[in-house]
Amino acid sequence: MKVKDYTTYSTLAIRQECSLKDVAVLLKDSGLEFIPIVDESQRIQNIISKNNLYNLMLDQELSFGSIEELIKDKFVMVKENDDIEKVFPIIDQYIVVVDDEQRFKGVIQKDKIVKEYFHSKQYLSNEFHAILDSTYNGIIAINKNEDIIVYNHSAEKILGVKSEDAIGSHVCKVLADSRLPEVLKTGERELGKKENFNGRTLIINRTPIVMDKEIVGAVAIFQDITDLKRVTKELENEKNVSEILRTIIDNAYEGIIVVDEEGYITMINDPYAKFLGGNKEDIIGKHATEIIDTTRLHIVVKTGKEEIGEVQKVRGKNIVVMRTPIYKEGKVVGAIGKIMFKDLQEVNVLASKINQIERELKYYKAALKEVSGAKYSFDNIIGVSDALKETKYLAEKATHTNSNVLIRGESGTGKELFAHAIHASSNRAMGPFIKVNCAAIPADLLESELFGYEEGAFTGAKRGGKIGKFELANGGSIFLDEIGDMPHSMQAKLLRVLQEKEVERVGGTKNIPLDVRIIAATNRNLEEMVEKGEFREDLYYRLNVMNIYIPSLRERTEDLEPLIKYLLNKISEQVGNYVSKVSLEAMKYLKSYSWPGNVRELENVLERAINLVDYGKEIQVSHLPMHIRKKEGSMKIKGDKELKDILEQVEKEAILDCLKRVNGNRTKAAKILNISRSSLYEKLWKYGIE
């Protein structure tokens, strides 16, 4: 769909010299949200919104003078041939439709987009339910949680349970002995199963619902064959059963055929005759094998055993049939055949429809997640090491609870990535995900940022106040990064929020209830800070419920190769320069490096290298930073070197090791090495240490 399909074309526009009175009249009469301002060539210059006009009227007396003071609104221009998807991210702004020369053509009304979107989704839903409810067979489908998501009218009639009582309930509450959970678990189909329910005989097909190679549910399609069996019994006991049976069969929708004890056709209904391409008069009296070369009705007469849910090829089509022997006084006197499904694909079509609905549901859930703020999942956490697997296992366990989580690890290990993944996989995934860096916000502003403030709470406070991060996260999760850097005075206030599960805005008197899951992260030693009195012990225990430690890159070197492969693809796409791989020699250098900056440093090194490599080539040693290249050389001391070179190499190793231990703090390194800072800087320059 294009923008023009949702455009209200209009020539209604004003010039810069128009008066406020003219604007007010136009907005009132047109019913539009805003009026565009154009020049002599009808090119858009600005807009005036009805909302801005109202605000001006509230703030001061409207003078009906110049419109200059009203031109404050921001707007976005889109071309009429643009795809409508371009509008969705900016739907909350004023949108003006223009041609290729930016001449005003019309406006997009938001209510029209919302209304058409609602109608399209309603039509799809109605169409799907109409298909289900017009099907003679009963249909029940469950999701991964074994809750009923589809339950049609035929299921109501056969099972005697109303749809409103079944939808959303666990399947075992509606059908205590249902085998759908088993099909969901094993992924194996169960076709043509004969079962009794409340004195009625049902033929049931159960099939797993597979989407993207994952079982997401199961569907059962069943028929009530009680009436057919009753007809067979009446055939044994009633002299006039032939006429009764003929009437019933001819009015049945499904194809039905009857043979005698010799296998000759004594009865066939119109649907079956039409399916075979003939008429009843020509078919009746002939042997079943003359009409249907693949028939087994004459065999069922001999064996006396019914065959249900068998696949049979008739006239080039695979159909699902049932064959039932007819008994009289304990002796088989014939057999009845019935087409259960005229095409083997019918079951798959129904399962496909349910798959389509599930895919749409998954899409809109993903879209809602994107809006809520969580960008990453556990699929974005790359690694094969046991250390990382253990960390991911603990993080996935944390998704099943609402307990607070404390993520520990060095800088650059991916603490925020884990926080995103925990939220996205939890039952709060549909709620907001709010991020706060406690170290980046000044101490005097942190309280108002976290808890919000009321109007007039302090000098410079916004009119109407401001909602805090905790309120924004209500119903979802809040990620408190660098929690170890939170001022001591704020720790007590945060503790109260955690204990009372409510927040009071700065300058406010009302307590606002909260339903927020806390995910905190730090690279500092909180236990040591507690001992020194720098971090509250009670807050530490409140946060440290689910403790997740993320190992550094040097603790999981086996993750380097898969991580490098993943980052190459990601960064190549971002910078627009395709790199095929990392050479074996360069990979040795990367593996020998200690990575004090962890994954963040690795990503930085790879991005630098990708920018240096020619398109389609591989990363060589020469593309790596000097401190990584020299690191490898320093590890290979050979006997041919002079003492001076060996001493310099050892000195360089000592400096690098010290810098790593103090996280690059050169002042601390100089103190530990017992040299002046100027001497340290000279040696860093000498050895090419960055």
UniProtKB/TrEMBL annotation:
Tree of life domain: Bacteria
UniProt xrefs under CDD domains: AAA, PAS
Sequence ranges assigned to domain Sigma-54 factor interaction in this UniProt record: 381-611
KW Transcription (keyword) present: yes
Residue intervals of the CBS domain: 6-64
Gene Ontology biological-process entries: regulation of DNA-templated transcription
PROSITE patterns xref list: CBS (PS51371), PAS (PS50112), SIGMA54_INTERACT_1 (PS00675), SIGMA54_INTERACT_2 (PS00676), SIGMA54_INTERACT_3 (PS00688), SIGMA54_INTERACT_4 (PS50045)
Keyword presence, tRNA-binding: no
PAS domain location: 124-182, 241-286
Coiled-coil regions listed: none
GO MF: ATP binding; sequence-specific DNA binding
Record-linked SMART domains: AAA, PAS
Keywords, sorted A to Z: ATP-binding, CBS domain, DNA-binding, Nucleotide-binding, Transcription, Transcription regulation
Protein name listed in UniProt: PAS domain S-box protein
Species this protein is from: Crassaminicella thermophila
